Amino acid sequence: MEYYIENNKIYENSTPIVTINVNRKGLGIDSIDLSGQVNIKIKRSKGKYEIYDGDILSGYIGKDFEINYLGSTYKVDRKNIISFMNGATDSIKITSLGTEIANIKRDGNRLFISSDRGLDRTVMFIYLAIFSSFFRVTPGYAGRRNVYNLPLPYRIAYYVFIFGALIFLILTPNIGIYSAFLFFFMIIIAQIIRYLGYRKGNIK
Questions:
Q1: pLDDT digits 0-9 by tens, 43-77
Q2: In what helix (H) or strand (E) does residue 201 lie, and over which residues does it extend?
Q3: Long-range contacts for 110-113 (Cβ within 8 Å, ≥24 apart)?
Q4: Average pLDDT over residues 67-94
Q5: Is the pLDDT of residue 137 over 50?
Q6: Domain boundaries, given as residue ranges, for the chain
Q7: How far apart (Å, rounded) are the C-alpha atoms in residues 179 and 78?
Q8: pTM of the model
Q9: Distances from the Cα of 39 to the Cαs of 11, 16, 65, 123, in angstroms?
Q10: Which candidate, 40, 44, 189, 203, has a CA 20 to 30 Å from the CA of 30?
């Protein structure tokens, strides 16, 4: 099985089958709705996210994007998450009981997930929805061109946010949807500072 996400829709064989709607509150994600061939709602609750299939509580998303759904547990390695988020790798392995059962891959403007181990497609949709908010940004490689030519105040502010974001991610004991969103918020602020510095210094 293979699915991919593009423009907030999940596709199977080029046919859209699920629509994703992310609802934000403040700086975090409050809930995620998946509609179409599934009716899934993911709600933030007491430090984790609960998964509802219709009106029935069917699981939750814990730290480091661990998913417990219908009694089965699915995990993503923490180092793999960090490597994916900073652009060092374009893939994420999903495991269950120590065995790899699915793979997420970033390819251009699309995020793919595939499994030949019969992984529940709802879990595949949930992982696509989670990582769709983060897969386009590669801060490990972004913004290096002409950074040293920025006016000094902008350069300092840029590096404060870039390195602050990376240190925050590394030192965070467990990565969740909320902390990951804060990480990318800091990266976006850094890129805004870089852009303003370019305009101030008229850097091409």
A1: 988 778 999 999 999 999 988 889 999 999 999 99
A2: helix 177-201
A3: 110/4, 110/5, 110/6, 111/4, 111/5, 111/135, 112/2, 112/3, 112/4, 113/2, 113/3, 113/4
A4: 87
A5: no
A6: 2-131, 147-201
A7: 13
A8: 0.70
A9: 16, 15, 20, 12
A10: 189
